[in-house]
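#onboarding

Welcome to the new folks! Below is a worked example of what a typical request in this channel looks like: someone posts a single protein sequence, and someone else replies with the predicted structure as tokens. Don't worry about understanding the tokens yet, we'll cover that in week two.

Example request:
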Amino acid sequence: MGNFIAFAGLLMMGLMILSQLPICRGFISSTITRNYLSSTTASCTQSPTPTPTPTPTPPLIYTSSCSMIPPSSSWPPLQSLRADLRDAGLYRWPPHVNLLYPFVPPQKFPQVSHLLSSKLKSFKPFRVQFNTFETFGTDKRGVLWLKPTYPDTPTETLTTLQSILSSTLPYCTHQLKNGVFTPHMTVSHFSSESAALSAGEEIEFEGVDFLVDRVYLMSRNGAGGQFKVGAEVVFGEEEPMLHIEPKAFEGMPEEEFEWVAVERKELQQRRKRKQRRKNS
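Example response:
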């Protein structure tokens, strides 16, 4: 044991002497440095797990809509009713029920319509009737509208349809008020809800009854433009019907009558006053 301890002591002294020589000091130092850098580089070159980039939400605009539109055969009584009540939207809007509004820009119609087609492949056409008036509004504004009923189905079919659409495009939820969708076909706008209610009580309207077999993706150019069809999603079809050139609706006015322009501008002013009151 004594000899071993003595040998170990001599070995340590020898290493200490060698470490003082320049050539050995450089070798030892470079070896230590190289080993340190190798271990550091290995730990630094391990790529961190990338954070997934969220899919951006498309902008929504008020000159675009996904709507239920009656067939042209049901338009005459509806358009006559709207004209009699001096509807400010008569030139711009077809008779419609907004399902998703505001909606994506028309440049997104091809992509979005394919998504909606895939979700409506098994959705069945259904009958709907509009013959009952209801109102929205306050003492500052009023809307007279037609309420849908469904003679062949026990469910609120337009509500079911809207739920499918909004779940497919979950960023389009503006038609839900406190989480509830109220399908309505606007007839005209008034200065107050009481004025809208009075107008509804004086009207004789037999109503319309038609089959719904598709939804329309439509848009217009600017505040005074007229809505035209960019795509049609037909229930049960694999592919949507795309219109490279927006398609005009049959039965729409060819020009904006002077009284329509006046009513439209007055409606815009009422909305601006409402917004100012909300912001004040």
